[in-house]
Amino acid sequence: MDAPPRNQGFRLDAAALDRQLALRGLTARKLAEISGIPENTISQARRGHRRMSERTLKRLTTALLGVPLMLGAELIIGSGETG
To answer: Could you give the CA distance from residue 26 to residue 18 in angstroms, rounded to a whole number?
Structure first.
């Protein structure tokens, strides 16, 4: 992944985050709690109103990777694609 220009940050893929939350049985509030990132920051990034710094993105992904997938969740949770 190429780093964006210093002041722009990374755009969050809300659908991908929602899928990862669902696969782990997490809410955005719980992710904020375990990552130490304010829930408002995550919410704004999900809506495209805010970009994330590399540091914040790493904290978010580290928190997600620390929560195991729910056994069998991928069988019933869609990919977000239509068609």
So the answer is: 9
